[in-house]
Write a structure and sequence with these properties.
Number of helices: 22
Strand content: under 5%
Radius of gyration: 23 Å
Distance between the termini: 27 Å
Strand order of the largest sheet: 1-2
Shape: globular
Length: 518
């Protein structure tokens, strides 16, 4: 039977007309399954870039399902353009903000302040908080490279087992990446299934808290027993950190600041050399060093910048939940400031002004920082756009409606189905982003009949599945192994397990919330 497109899918490139299946139900199912298998095979076996794999798979699904070739191309283009319109701008602004956070020294200031105020027993909890704060505005890889020197430095000076320091920080970073906008995965899932960004942001933060606690400081106690390794010798002094790249087999310190995203900005902000006693919680002091400390914004300025877009978007979500029928200039202003593009745009402008002033950056340095933020995200944007195109092909062929009917008739929780689909693609491809965009495209028609809160939970279920079982086909696996100097087996016992814990605890939290939210 025909399937009408809901309003939130119309905004993503659909039409107001009903969708007549382009072929028989067996043909549609076979086309969808073959298309997904082709995408996975291209990425994992032939090592094709996910953008090309998703494009080929989407066009193949469309043609295989009975669409004319030109209509398959048009459908893919419509989905690609709509997704880039809703997500591309946000990802670009978010990348600029994150780069300014790093280059100005604001990220360093937040980390330094929190660590200095922590007792030895509280360090794992502090590192989880640092990972979460750094994870709010930054892509995972950039946040990881930024955190590794801090993890090593804190573990070496405090004499706390490195896994008690590393695991909470990595959990905080990875959890934010999976659940909380403006990361590309959650953003594209929100756009694809038509979820409310503010509601999803609020739910994501609430869900992230227990997940970080359970998979972070608490699991770190076991990880430290399972993998008791010495702290990697990656630094000589603050500002002179040598990090081992993910390709270094032994994990020894080999290449240094080439992998540190903050190095060039830090060097440009050096002050005159001063003596400093490297102190730790409980008054411990192990050596005195002469350092040339870079300038950086104050802790308050840095923290305001990190939380600013979150507060603006949450403000709009709270207004919609508590006063949905309210009117007036204050409502218009709150809705305007809380719209994702404006909220993240304001944060980017804030960073350009206040981070730059506090970090001693001139106009040329700011311009260079903003410009350098964009090339690294080009691949991510293409993958996200291709995922949107794949989603639109599923809808226009009628495959999405068939999948929606099958899930409804099965009696299985929609949230569980979303997690399973996302987790399977993640395990097969090793990419959280590919898993998210693929699962969101498949689940989009199902979201048509869900309430606003349930649609947000659907996004979080997809995000939870997207980090499940990181292993040897995941770049993050090798980054963690290389930087911490662990063996493959030790990386499985720590990194892979913590990713599974984030995924499973996230799923349990979503399912529990789904019992009370309809």
């Amino acid at each position: 039977m025909p399937h009408a497109l809901p309003d939130h899918l119309l905004a993503a490139g659909g039409t107001t007309e009903t969708v007549d299946p382009s072929g028989s139900i067996p043909q549609l199912i076979i086309a969808a399954l073959v298309g997904i298998v082709v995408i996975i095979a291209l990425i994992t076996w032939l090592k094709v870039h996910p953008f090309i794999a998703l494009t080929i798979g989407a066009l193949g699904v469309g043609i295989g399902a009975g669409l004319a070739p030109d209509k398959a191309v048009t459908s893919f283009g419509d989905g690609f353009g709509a997704t880039m319109t809703s997500v591309g701008i946000l990802v670009g602004l978010g990348a600029m903000f994150g780069k300014m956070l790093v280059d100005s020294g604001a990220a360093d200031r937040v980390v330094d302040t929190l660590v200095r105020k922590s007792s030895k027993a509280a360090l794992p909890w502090t590192m989880a908080l640092i990972g979460a704060l750094i994870g709010l505005p930054m892509f995972f890889e950039v946040g990881l490279v930024l955190l590794i020197p801090i993890i090593v430095l804190v573990a070496k000076r405090s004499e706390v087992p490195i896994m008690k320091i590393a695991v909470p920080a990595l959990v905080g970073l990875s959890t934010m990446h999976a659940f909380v906008p403006p990361h590309p995965g959650p953003l594209v899932a929100i756009s694809t299934v038509g979820a409310n960004l503010g509601t999803t942001l609020a739910f994501g933060i609430v869900l992230a808290i227990p997940v970080i606690i359970l998979a972070g400081p608490l699991f770190a106690r076991f990880a430290a027993r399972w993998v008791d390794i010495p702290v990697p010798d990656m630094f000589g002094s603050r500002g002179a950190v040598a990090t081992a790249g993910p390709g270094s087999g032994s994990g020894s310190a080999s290449a240094a600041f080439a992998d540190d995203p903050a190095h060039s900005g830090r060097q440009a902000r050096r002050r005159a050399a001063t003596q400093d006693t490297a102190s730790l919680p409980n008054g411990k002091s192990d050596f005195t060093r002469v350092i040339s400390e870079p300038r950086s914004p104050s802790f308050t300025v840095a923290l305001i910048g990190i939380l600013l877009p979150v507060v603006l978007m949450l403000g709009q979500a709270i207004r919609e939940a508590t006063a949905p029928d309210a009117a007036g200039s204050w409502v218009s202003l709150l809705d305007f400031l809380g719209s994702p593009m404006i909220a993240i745009g304001i944060a980017a402008v804030y960073a350009m002004v206040f981070f730059a002033i506090g970090g001693g950056m001139d106009r040329s340095a700011v311009s260079k920082s903003l410009e350098s933020a964009l090339p690294p995200i080009a691949g991510v944007l293409l993958i996200v756009g291709a995922g949107g195109g794949f989603k639109q092909v599923l809808i226009n062929t009628g495959i999405g409606g068939v999948i929606a009917d099958a899930v409804k008739d099965s009696g299985v929780s929609v949230l569980l189905v979303a997690w399973v689909v996302s987790a399977l693609v993640r395990v097969a491809t090793g990419s959280a982003t590919v898993a998210t965009v693929t699962a969101a495209g498949i689940m989009a028609p199902i979201a048509a009949d869900l309430s606003t809160p349930m649609t947000s939970l659907l996004v979080l279920a997809i995000g939870a599945g997207s980090v499940f079982l990181s292993h040897v086909n995941d770049a993050g696996f090798w980054l963690v192994k290389g930087y911490l100097g662990t063996t493959v087996g030790q990386t499985f016992k720590t990194w892979t397990v913590l990713e599974c814990l984030i995924s499973v605890f996230g799923l349990l939290g979503v399912l529990l919330a789904g019992v009370f939210i309809r």
